[in-house]
Every structure is written in C-alpha cells, then in structure tokens.
Amino acid sequence: MQHLTFTEIVVVMLLGMWLMLSISYAVLNHFTAKVIYKFNVFKWISAYQLFTETPKEYRIYYRDQLLSGETTDWHTISLIPDYKWWHFLWHPGSLVPLTIISTADNLMGRITAFPNHELNKNISDRFNYQVIQHYVFRQPVPKELKARQFKIEMEEKLPNNSNNVSQFVSNMHTP
Amino acid sequence: MTFFLTAEEAIIWVIRFLSIYIVIDSAEKLAVFQEFKKNGLFHWSTMRQNGFFKKRSVLFLKLADFIFNSHCWIILIAARCCAGLTLFLATNDDLLTKLMLLVVFFTGSLMNLRNTPFGAETENRFALIITGALLLRYFAPTPMVTLACLWFIALQSCVSYFTAGVTKMFNAEWRNGNGIRHVFESPGLVATRKATYWLKEHPSFAKFLTWGTLSMECAFPVALAGWPLVWLFLAWGILFHVGIAIFIRLGKFFWVWIATYPAIIFVAH
C-alpha cells in the first residue's frame, strides 16, 4: 500500500472533518448550530433548506405626515423588479429587493412570534426595523415632509387553503 | 457508451464552472456598488449596527472598519472578480490557480462575515465549501488528495440535495403536492405570471413537479452508484437548476451546483 506523506494525511483529515461537520450540521441543525455558532463566522459549515417553507408575500407601504398636519395615503413600495429575459444570467437588481424581503420576513417573524411580548416594545431599536426604516426613507420625499410611517403586510397560505394577512404599522419617524 | 473524466479533468471543470459563478457574482456586486457606499443598504455603518458586530471586541471592530469600508471593499470585490476570471482562463498553472483560489476563499469568507446581519448568501456558502476543498488539494496535489477532494465535493453536493429534499418533507404543503404551485404563486419569487396561470390550470402537472423534486432531491446520493443512474440524476439536476434560473431568477445557483457535477461524474465511475 502506498504510504501517505504528512501533508496528505493532514489534508485528507481536514476534508473528512469538514464533511462530518457539514453532515452533522445538516442532520442535527439546531443542536450543531448552537455548538458551532461562535466559530462559524465565515459560514464554512452550512445546511441548505431552500423553499422548505411555503413562501409568504410581503408588501411594504409608507405614508407621510406633512408640515400642514395632513397625512397622505399609503404608497406601495414595489419589491418585484420587472422581468427581463436575461435575468436568468445577470440580475444585479435583485440584491436589494431580496434583502428587503428577507429583512421584512425576519422582522415579521419576531413580531408575530411574540405579539404582546415585552421585547417588542423596543422593536424600533432592532436592526431589521432600522433597515426597513432606512429603505422607506429612500423613497421620494416631499419638501413639506414632517414624519414618515411604514406598514408591512405579510400574507401566508394556511393549510386549509385560506390566506392569513398579518400587519405591522410603525411609529411616525422624522427624517 | 460512457463519458469519463480523469481526476485532473474533473478538477479543471469544477474550477471552470465555479469561476463563472465568481465572476458573475462579483460583477453583479460591482454593478450595484452604490448600495455599499454611504446611504446604501449595505454600507458598513448600517451593517455595524447589528447585534452580532456590536458584541465584538474593539480590535475586531477596528479591523472590520478598515476592511469593510466601501473603499477597501470595492478593491476586494474587484480582486475576487479578477481571480474568478483568471481561474477560468488559466487552469493549467498550479501556482496561479492556488493563489487565485486563495483570493476567492479569503474574499468569499469576508463576504459571509460582512453579510451576517442579513444572512450569508446561499450560493456563496456552497461556493466556499468547493473553493476550500480545491484550495486544500492544491497544497498537496497528489492522486490521493485529488481523489479525496473530488469525493468531498461530490458528497457535499449529495448532502445539499438530500437535506433540501428531506426538510421539504416536513412541510405538509410539499407532502400534499402543492409545494411547486405555492412557489409559482408567489410574485416575489416568480415574476412570470404566464407560468403561474398555466400551472394553476394543470394541477396534476404541478403535483408531478412537486413529487418529482422531492423524490430526486431525497434520492440524489444514489447518483454515486454509477452509470446509468448518475446521468439520470445529473440531467434532472441541470433541468432543475435551469428552471430555478429562468423562473425564480436565481441563476447563480446553477453555476455553483453544476460545478460539483464533474466531481460526481468522476466518483460515480
């Protein structure tokens, strides 16, 4: 039998350990995630569970309070870029909408999981909330703007084929 | 007739497919680089507000402030793009390939770290695993290590499909055969309404697609059993990823997962 050099043994062992950790992460996801969370900052160990959950629909709206005291109607922010045939190969425009949808998903996940929880009183301090707020303020701003408020609607399919719509309305925020 | 790849050829094709992903992904990020600058969604000052970074040491944050600010970041992304291009063109030069894989692995790891607040991108997570294995192989490019590297890539690919299939089985909608229909009914995912209406009018075909996806994902490791099964699974895999690229516009997944196929072909034979 061919003798392996020290480097060969090290490389093969590293690959073996990496594979075992990946399998363990995929099979015992929550348990392994807790153990390796601190060390997995570069996400070298991952599990792939794409489209496992039934997709939810997110709609984001904003409305303005003007200096005159008047409040405008809700404006919709489109999160669906126009479909072009080359998007299967080249689609840089998807980066922002997909990130906003994922952020809204995280925020709504927390709000709906703990509807009356003490922690949600400070929801505006949370990163996901601030990202949505930042994105909402990037929409056209009228000169006479005093404050802006946003609303997220989450629509999910229930097992009985009906739809459930959850809603979150933010406070008014000054620019 | 069987189509066979030698270990060296398999490595070269893995690198080629992977490099296409790296070039496209880096170029897409450069195309929207204004989002990484001030007031952009991915500006470092925004990302830094996340609890994950707030808890880090002062030294870590000083280093991160230097690397992740937009000036340094654009250089790193451009370097990743150039490394991808070099990998595609110069697969015969061992030293150059090793250096470029190092650049790709280093920048890819930093991308995952920087993107922690939003969650690391799935394609990049998987691409890093392939890059890491190739990089390790270039430290000792002997037949034994090359074999281990190809087995590693092939098994990681099988684990990814298997996990995706089994976790879908826990969702009643997928078990009822409605998984694909729900994906197509989501305008955030599938923008081509024609396909959505067509699937609504052909519920049996939607169920067939759902069960086809579930069965092939769960059974994917069988591809390693050899000819002719390997070709059946790889043909399905190509169609599956082309479908995802066209309808869900996640084209980068195609290049990353297809990059593992030369390793699967080699291992299966």
Question: Can you give a write-up of this model?
Answer:
The complex is a heterodimer of chains A (175) and B (269). Chain A is α+β, with helices and mostly antiparallel strands and 175 residues long. Chain A is built from 4 helices and 4 strands. Chain A has helices at residues 6-27, 29-36, 95-113, 127-136; strands at residues 57-66, 75-77, 145-157, 163-169. In chain A, β1 and β2 form a beta hairpin. Chain B has 269 residues and is mainly α. Chain B has 15 helices and no strands. Chain B has helices at 7-31, 44-47, 51-54, 58-68, 70-89, 94-114, 122-139, 143-169, 172-175, 179-184, 193-201, 203-219, 229-248, 251-258, 261-268. Chain B is globular. In chain B, 45% of the residues are buried. The interface between A and B is large, with 62 and 70 residues.
Describe the secondary structure blueprint for this structure.
The complex is a heterodimer of chains A (175) and B (269).
Chain A: H1 6-27, H2 29-36, E1 57-66, E2 75-77, H3 95-113, H4 127-136, E3 145-157, E4 163-169
Antiparallel strand pairs in A: 1-2, 1-3, 3-4
Helix pairs in contact in A: 1-2, 3-4
Chain B: H1 7-31, H2 44-47, H3 51-54, H4 58-68, H5 70-89, H6 94-114, H7 122-139, H8 143-169, H9 172-175, H10 179-184, H11 193-201, H12 203-219, H13 229-248, H14 251-258, H15 261-268
Helix pairs in contact in B: 1-5, 1-7, 1-8, 1-14, 1-15, 5-6, 6-7, 7-8, 7-14, 8-12, 8-15, 13-14
